[in-house]
Amino acid sequence: MDIIDAIYGRFSARAYKPRAIPKETLMKIFEAAVRTPSWADSQPWEVYLAAGATLDKLRNANLELFKSGAPRAFEVPGPAKWPDDAQGRIERNMGERLRELGLDREDKAGRQKLVEGNFRFFNAPAVAFLCMDKTLSSWSSFDMGAFSYGLMLAAMEFGVDSVPAVMMVSYPDLVRETLKIPANLTILFAVALGYQDDADPLNKFRSVRRPADEVVHLFGV
Predict the structure, then answer these.
(1) Which end of the chain has less neighbouring CB within 10 Å, N or C?
(2) What is the pTM of this model?
(3) Three-class SS state of 188
(4) Buried/exposed 5-16: b ≥16 CB within 10 Å, e otherwise
(5) What is the torsion angle, in degrees rounded to the nearest 10, for the CA atoms of residue 55, residue 57, residue 59 and residue 60?
(6) Which domains are assigned to the chain?
(7) H or E element, residue 92
(8) What is the end-to-end Cα distance of the chain in Å, rounded?
(9) Helical pair 172-179 and 52-67, crossing angle rounded to 10 deg
(10) Given pLDDT bands bounded at 50, 70 and 90, which one contains residue 82?
C-alpha cells in the first residue's frame, strides 16, 4: 500500500466483524511497528495483546465495571482543561458524529450507548495495550504515540483496521491482573484491531482535520 494512501485512508473504526486476526498477521504488523524511531534508540514500548477467550473475559468484566458506575482510574492523567480551540474541535466533531448517527445531543441514552462502545473495546477481536516503564518521562510517551501510529499504518497493509482510545484503559487494575502486566509498567492506552464492519453507521463518520496551512507556521520558505 502506498504510504500517502494509508495516511489518508486510515480512520478510527468503532465497529468490527467477529473475525479473528491470524497470529501470523498480528506478528507481521508488530514486526513493522517496532521499526518506530525512539529517543536515544531506547525502544520503550511493551505491548500486551488480548484476543480470543482472554479478551472476551476482559471485555465482559470491563463492561460490568462501567455499567456499575465504577470510577475511571487512568494511569496517565488527562488535561485539567482543554484549550478553547481544542475543546471547540472536540465538540464540533462530536456534534457531526451524532448527526451522522441520527442522535440528538440531548439523547442521553443514545450518547451513553455510544460511550459504552469504548468499554466493549468496540467488539474488536484483538486489543493491544501499550505500556512503558514508570520511570520514563513524557519524552518516551512521544515515542509510544509514534509507535501506535506505525502500528495502525502497518495494520492497513494487511487489511486490518484500528482505533486508539485511552477510554479502553479506564480500569487498569483489571487489565493488569488479566494480562499479568508487571507493576513497573504504566498502562498508557490501547489500540483495538480488527476488520471493520462497513455496514455499521459508526464507521461512516470521518472527522474534519485542521488544514496544514493553519497548523504549520513557515519562516524563510
Answers:
(1) C
(2) 0.95
(3) strand
(4) eeeeeebbbbbb
(5) 160
(6) 3-207 (3.40.109.10)
(7) helix 84-100
(8) 31
(9) 160
(10) very high
